[in-house]
Amino acid sequence: MAYRKTVASFVAAAALLGTSTASYAATDIAWWHAMGGRLGEVVVDIANGYNADQDACKITPVFKGTYEETLTAGIAAFRAGEQPNILQVFDAGAATIIGAKGAVIPAQDILENAGVGFDIEDYIDGVRYFYADSDGKMIGMPFNSSTPILYYNVDALKKAGVEAPKTWEEFQEIAPKLKEAGYVPLAQSHLPWIFTENFKSRHNLQFATNNNGYDGSKDTTLVFGEPIKNHFSAVKGWLDDGLFGYYGTGWGDNQTPFNEGKVAMWLGSSGSFGGISKTVDFPFSATYLPYWDAVDGAGTGTFIGGAALFSMSGKSDEENKCVASFFEYLTSPEVQYMWHKETGYVPITNAAYDMAKKDGYYESTPAAEVGIKQLTLPGGEWTKGYRMGFYVQIRDVMNREYGKLMSGETTVEDAFATIEADGNKLLERFSKTTGN
Amino acid sequence: MVPYMLLLPQLAIVTIFFLWPAAEAIQSSFYLEDPFGFGSTFVGLDNFTDMLTSTDYGRVARFTAVFTFFVTFLSLGFALLLAVKADKVLRGASTYKTLLMWVYAVAPPVAGLIGVLLFDQHVGPMVDLFAMFGWKMQIGVNYFDTSFAMIVTAVWKQIPVNFIFFLSGLQGISKSVQEAASIDCRSGFRRFWTVTFPLLAPTGFFLLIINITYAFFDTFGIVDVIVKNEPGNNPVTLVYKVYLDGFRGNDLGGSSAQSVILMALVFILTIIQFRLIERRVHYT
User: Which of A11, A317, B75, B264 is 20 to 30 A from B188 in CA distance terms?
Assistant: First the structure.
């Protein structure tokens, strides 16, 4: 009897479910993301805001773990035909998803097909072309966008009687004074991102052949010249002289000593802003990523890190329209400003940036503007980004060699020779995955 | 026919969950494939040669060998010592044994997490302890220090399993044999090596295989938590590298080639163990 009752209630529930969706008629779309903790809460807020804003579509955000786990989950789902409508993919995975021709519908197409206006000029400089193809068509919709900036402990700098450095030459002058004042002058959290990719952009230097890899994966090779090798020689020298702290590959391991007030200056993400302001008990501020004045043409802007939203292919027109309308909502100045304020990630459109300025946000918290100002610095030939496959492994190779360099197991010359050899081999392997 | 019918479920499970994936892995180890499944190139043995000629693979393989040796040797050694001592405890024996066993219930990632907390370069109590002896540990920066933390955590996690088996092995040795031995020989140390240890050999052999497998595969969680998903210049095991390249880096071909190598390795290891070592083990 009990069994029959259960079955009956199941049938009733199923019937109810069927009728409710039928009568409501909202199109469901899924959004897989990698935003944990506080960021995840804001993602849910955005989704709820969108669902409340209109009733034709209903978006459901699903947290899938780290960036790598989210991409892998998306790939596995795609191969099983169960892909979400929107997949968040991080900077290092961009080549993988863009290289798979047919896996995604370009953000620009999905917006234009749905009749929503699209103008790439609406997006701020450092954001515009990072997730675009070589023709400048936007493939991924930039979402959480950040760029490396220099945070500093105001008390520490005051105690040492110095100003935050604009260039690495200035840093070399002030670092001994900070050390004397009892601080480790500098730490950073991501050598490949800050001291390699963005080092290239900040100095307007080529990072890879084939237009930094945008023109195709075939025969793309890494380019390392004297400036970056000199930079790492200098960094290793600072480390040996106690002017620089290296605490491993982990992001948090390097940020912790800054939060604890042991390290005076820390290179991190503009998106770290929200977290730091909640953690530290000393006044802090931020400024641009320093550059070498000695390098010709240095001082150009950086490009974004973080992740973008990709619209997966193989979905109905109805669902794609919903994706377009969600993108439209997401890029609206109000939502971008909210996201910017809550998380510290930069607003991706000029309109949102203007809104934040008009609202007087940067007068009360000037450090929040550093990232976006740095992204809008004059660009150059090599400042729009890079596109390389198996880039997660290439970053691993960099981290491995840089780690060996810091612990004295290798030299700058050998480290870069290995990064070039192993990296180029990975690039060559990647170019074969597309079947050409 | 009936016996085969009865075997069928087992055979089906073996085929679906072991043979089929193994065959897939072997097949994809000869291709370089776009992870989304749009294209692939047949590259013959390139995945294998690329792997075996890379400097990194040799480094990982060497670490795996050293790691496996230390984890197996130390966890068996400590467990045997603890079991022999626990076997002699008369009062409060069960409390004592339970205390030695509870770590068994800790899942590998949790064990890794405990290891990370103990050895954290900023707040770890173990780091403070070693600093008193003048050893400035830096987990995640120094290769040796990180290896040390990994081995300690892996050994700590494995001792209870070995302890349980050794203890029951010891309790299975008949009292009469032990009494006869103590009449013949007064030295407890010699009695242990000439009588008790050989009688424990079947248990020991079984544990040896279990421990090598543990160090090879089951320490994944510990390695993952200690390197925090960022290998850098930290030591990692072969299995962890399969994961890094395949799941984190989406290099399906390269990762498959590595797992095929691993499969062959385990196969060879098992043959050696049964051919060479088992001959010297006496089952009574």
Answer: B75
